[in-house]
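[Help] Beginner question about ligand-bound structures

Sorry if this is basic. My supervisor gave me a protein sequence and a SMILES string for zinc ion and asked me to "get the holo structure". I don't really know what that means in practice or what format the answer should be in. Inputs are pasted below exactly as I got them.
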Amino acid sequence: MILEDFIVINKTGLFCRYGDFYLDPKEGVKNAVISHAHGDHAISGNQNVYCTRATSLFMLHRYKKFAAVDFHLKTFHEVFDVNGVKVTFIPAGHILGSAMVLMEYQQVRYLYSGDYKLQPDATCEPIEFVQADVFITETTFADPATQHPVAETEILKLNSTQSNIMLGAYALGKSQRLIQLINAYCPEKRILLHHSMMPFVKIYEQEGVNLGKYEVYDRKVMKQNQSNMVYMVPPMVYGSYFRAINVVRVFATGWKHLQNNNELQLYVSDHADWNDILYTIEKVQPTEIWTNHGNGLQLKSHYEKSLVVKLLN
Ligand SMILES: [Zn+2]
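Answer (accepted):
No worries, everyone starts somewhere. Holo just means with the ligand present. The predicted complex, written as structure tokens, is below.
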């Protein structure tokens, strides 16, 4: 029988009282099961952190000694016990080390998605689907109006200009995916990386991901070469360089409103879009869907006659 309070939401995040742990807590807790290393899912100050190795490496880089008191590193598909709940990490295809969290308790399977994507991405483990009775899914783009174009087609847009490009991208996950895509599809381009992106890039490489060629940004190189340079910077830097001249400004995101001021729109998203969410639900075959992160109303009306959809947030 599905326990309706197996996962509840409170100000600290998603709580499982049966195993006394939080999923991606927003404040430091005793037991944290962390899906992936993005800042809105992995914070510092937790005591026991259950996660994949890549997630721990990103957290250690970002939070140093405050990353966790104790890390409990788990490989994908390894079944482990947290206070009586059986937990397994399943690849989520979002960024390197990202996991869905399968929880089994009293013969019922609850699957927490974290962030996930279905599009191919050579820089992280591809998503895998497992059956679960309850699917707890993010709904960042759970709107039929949102359909992410193919990333490979989007990246070819960069070849439409010879001008130097300033490319804004999140430092973890997105930028590594873009480095790999540019190397594969825009061979004329020379990639310069903002120094703050380097540690994450190095961790990807240490973990065996081949990103291809790039250099650390050097002002002289960018000045001397008036064409085909791509200077990749994190969002904060991108925002502060709004007056940068002689460059085409591009920001890689799935969000339309973040594309408005740019000369060239690059829709590369690391989240599932509407069709991807429906496809995932088809694969997971849940009898109940619980939604968080975003708006689950569209899903609720879509499945009105067939599935229970409960909005957690
Ligand atoms: Zn994320």
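A couple of things worth pointing out: The chain is about 20% helix and 25% strand. The domain at 151-266 is CATH 3.40.50.10710 (Rossmann fold). Feel free to follow up in the thread.
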